[in-house]
Design brief:
- It comes from Candidatus Scalindua brodae.
- It contains nine helices and 15 strands.
- The chain is an alpha/beta fold.
- Helix 3 packs antiparallel against helix 4 and helix 5 packs parallel to helix 6.
- The longest helix is centred in the C-terminal third of the chain and has 24 residues.
């Protein structure tokens, strides 16, 4: 059974969307948006009318009030670097509605939106400090190969967010727009790595993916729980009382992570595998990171 929802109707819907980067986002080819007089694009500002400016871009309302000629200035959009980072550690291989399977579809959707909008897309999978990096560019012809590589990814290793993020920054020196999909459940924390991301020339989006069993665990009278990454056995019983304590601590963890992202000017989205995967794009629209064309 395929992990990916390769539905033609889904791809047709995705063609309606494009990314809306933050103001400070740049690409390896210079600023994403450069100022230009006329030529169309998104209106930005006015400047004094000068030799070579087209008359049709003069704002005659301002001239009527001030008796001075001003030309409209627009943002002229170019291509952008889009980085897609996927956590494939063993903790992502969890849930009846599997987190890693869901995350692969998120990566597929983001890559397709990037490629079809002529952005330079690069995909990377990480676990521990190891990476599988695949530059897609903006070539739709390579998309099929990307889907095959995505299908072949298997959970491995333990979550080491800080080391993985720092390694990516050091090796790639990225700029542009970066999406990182993970459960962000790491005993070593996430603060150090994400702080470095926040101070890089990137607009960062953290997509925290959790399954139903993590958001709402059921009572299970068992002698042991097993850490899915380290295989360590923990003597623990999921009684009603312990479930309630877990829920309280777990919600606090999510709120702390959300607040941390907010303070670092990082976009945060909480995703559940119980929600149809194609609906998460609506969350991106609501957060202003995507728009309908």
């Amino acid at each position: 059974m395929s992990d990916l929802i390769t539905d033609a109707a889904l791809f047709e819907r995705l063609k309606q969307f494009s990314f809306v980067p933050g103001r400070h986002v740049s690409s390896s080819h210079g600023n994403l948006k450069k100022l230009s007089r006329g030529t169309g694009g998104e209106f930005s500002d006015y400047r004094n009318y000068g030799i070579g400016d087209e008359i049709k871009y003069i704002d005659w309302n301002i001239y009527a009030r001030s008796n001075k000629l001003f030309s409209k200035v627009f943002h002229e959009e170019g291509n952008m670097d889009v980085h897609l980072l996927l956590d494939v550690s063993k903790s992502m291989d969890f849930g009846k509605k599997n987190k890693l399977r869901y995350a692969k579809n998120i990566m597929m959707i983001l890559a397709y939106i990037g490629i079809t909008n002529n952005h330079n897309v690069q995909f990377s999978a990480f676990a521990d400090k190891s990476f599988m990096t695949m530059p897609l560019g903006h070539n739709i012809d390579i998309f099929g190969h990307f889907l095959e590589s995505l299908e072949d990814l298997h959970p491995q290793g333990i979550t080491q967010l800080n080391q993985s993020i720092l390694s990516y920054l050091h090796e790639q020196k990225p700029s542009g727009l970066l999406f990182i999909v993970s459960d962000f459940l790491d005993e070593e924390g996430y603060e150090h790595g994400l702080t470095h991301l926040a101070h890089s020339p990137l607009h960062v989006c953290c997509l925290q993916l959790l399954c139903e069993e993590e958001n709402d665990p059921k009572i299970s009278y068992t002698d042991n729980l097993q850490d899915i990454e380290s295989n360590r056995l923990i003597n623990f019983n999921l009684t009603r009382s312990t479930c309630q304590k877990y829920m309280k601590v777990f919600k606090q963890h999510i709120e702390q992570f959300k607040t941390f992202c907010l303070l670092q000017n990082i976009l945060y989205l909480n995703l559940s595998t119980t929600i149809p995967v194609d609906q998460f794009i609506i969350n991106l629209v609501q957060q202003g990171i995507c728009k309908r064309k």
